[in-house]
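Retry 2 of 3 after timeout on previous attempt. Resubmitting structure tokens to design endpoint.
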């Protein structure tokens, strides 16, 4: 990522008060929690029981509060769900469904040009986002054009749309990426991207913004 954070786009993405509030947490009931975890994976009772190595009737009784499972059964159940035993007793965050959505057409997007990159912010109409998505045309051809490493909070996904780019980082050897290639990295690590192709390469960047 470039010096985009200095332009205030991060502040724009975080600004606003339309974040969906969390519902208050209630005392956990193991049965509904297990059912919630199972349905979140799209599993039937038979499928979940098979994953956990339990009888279908046993799992049904657990979900309906008709039996208190042993610790061994809890370990099997957690293993089948690919979570830890404590997570069986951790309530979900209970966030209510939200209608938030933003469409950015090919002609839209908030532009921002720098000496090294030409950015186009996506989903700019949404505030309090947890991710900052944008495309970038990579103008830079050498590290010397940056004047130092770029680093910022969060994590970042880079996906190459056209051309060839080289990702330089302070802890790894340079990586050349072509159309369809991607890389995910910790953005606190110094990083810069340059074009290797004759034409300016274009990429999709998605940066995490935390809780806002």
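Retry 2 succeeded. Sequence:
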């Amino acid at each position: 990522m470039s010096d985009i954070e200095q332009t205030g786009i991060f502040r724009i993405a975080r600004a606003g008060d339309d974040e969906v509030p969390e519902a208050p947490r209630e005392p956990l009931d193991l049965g509904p929690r297990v059912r919630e975890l199972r349905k979140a994976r799209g599993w039937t009772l038979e499928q979940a029981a098979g994953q956990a190595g339990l009888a279908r009737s046993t799992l049904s009784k657990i979900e309906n509060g008709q039996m208190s499972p042993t610790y061994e059964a809890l370990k099997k159940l957690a293993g089948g769900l690919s979570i830890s035993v404590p997570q069986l007793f951790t309530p979900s965050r209970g966030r209510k469904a939200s209608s938030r959505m933003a469409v950015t057409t090919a002609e839209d997007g908030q532009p921002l040009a720098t000496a090294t990159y030409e950015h186009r912010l996506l989903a700019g109409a949404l505030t309090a986002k947890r991710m900052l998505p944008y495309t970038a045309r990579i103008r830079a051809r050498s590290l010397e054009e940056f004047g130092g490493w770029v680093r910022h909070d969060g994590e970042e996904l880079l996906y190459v749309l056209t051309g060839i780019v080289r990702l330089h980082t302070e802890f790894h050897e340079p990586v050349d990426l072509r159309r369809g290639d991607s890389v995910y990295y910790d953005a606190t690590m110094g990083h810069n991207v340059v074009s290797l192709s004759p034409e300016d390469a274009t990429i999709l960047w998605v940066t995490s913004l935390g809780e806002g």
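Attempt log closed. The first helix runs from residue 9 to 14.
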